[in-house]
Amino acid sequence: MTIRDGTAKKKVFPLFRPELAMIWVILGVCVVFAGMSRVFLQPSNIMEILRQCSTMAILVLGVTWVISLNEIDNAFPDIAACASMLTALFIRNGIVFELAALYAILLSTLFGALTSVLVIRFQFPSLIATIAVSGLAKALASAIGKGIPIPVPSTAGSVIYSIVWGKVFGIPVLFLVAVALYTVSYFIQEKTRFGQYVYAIGENSQAVQESGIKRKRVMAIVFIVAAMFAAIGGVLMMGVLQSGQPKMGTSFFLDGFTVVFLGAVVFKMGKANVAGTLLGAILLGILTNGLTLLGASYFMSQIIKGSLLIFGVSVVTMSKNKQRGKAGVLTYE
């Protein structure tokens, strides 16, 4: 399926198109931090930035598709926390790391299935449905450890440890895994019918339904995939922290939405897309690392992230309002 709106586009030199502005912003921020800290451009620090931003990138990969549907997902941070607690619980009960992670991911993915049932079968607004599911995931995460973290033995020698801390030619394995996942997801979103259906539903859900596309099936898959990636992110964070954290979701909420909405101003202006989300995660990782090196306070970091989120949401909102005001006709093939 292809989408055409018949809108003529002005020719702009490729490197200076508005859709590529994020790349220039990333380079500019790097230059600023490099001028203020000698440590910033050291190879070891650059690799650490890539490693740190990769977990967040994986965690919100599925949320990108939810936003593309013009829906919302508030549950991903607490699903991640629940997955980390389940993994730690299974490990403490003698299950090997790899199986513990697999079981935790599968069980946490059920939260996505519940969301899809509430949204599709019972017609809940996705905001309300995911708030409810988020509450369930948070409650379960807290109940597992009675509100406190569950430490686990060293993950050294396990697949999780190799992914989180391993390197290939100096590049973090975690970053390579994130790039691989994003490459596959990019192909799905941009080159397959399923990916085009996701975009089309976000633009005009009713028209898609009337055209015979199985809208409900697409939405169900997207919510389930979002929960799965959130769970994978939670398991990876468990490997980083060496413990299940019932409250880790609190720190992921602002960062996650900031990454996704920042990504919506790249490549496909106003539309959440996986390539943009990866760049958004890298930018946020650079900002977090640079501010930490400069000794900036936590509150300053939150102010910057909040401002970036407002900017991203504003661009998406204005873009959608502009699209609604156009007389272009969408055609599906």
What's the alpha carbon Rg, rounded to whole Å? 20 Å
Helix content: over 70%
Strand content bin: under 5%
> At the third CATH level, what is the topology name?
ABC transporter involved in vitamin B12 uptake, BtuC
Unreliable spans: 5-9, 327-333
CATH domain class: Mainly Alpha
CATH architecture: Orthogonal Bundle
Helix and strand sequence: HHHHHHEHEEHHHHEHHH
Tell me, briefly, the overall form. globular
Number of domains: 1
Structural notes for this entry:
Helix 3 runs antiparallel to helix 11 (215-241), helix 5 runs antiparallel to helix 11 (215-241) and helix 8 (173-191) crosses helix 9. Strand 2 and strand 3 (171-172) form a beta hairpin. Residues 5-9 and 327-333 have low confidence and may be disordered. The termini are close together. 42% of the residues are buried. This protein has a single domain (14-325), classed as ABC transporter involved in vitamin B12 uptake, BtuC (Orthogonal Bundle). It is mainly alpha-helical and 333 residues long. The chain contains 14 helices and four strands. The chain has helices spanning 21-36, 43-59, 61-68, 76-92, 97-121, 126-145, 159-165, 173-191, 193-203, 205-210, 215-241, 249-263, 274-293, 298-325, and strands at 150-151, 167-168, 171-172, 243-244.
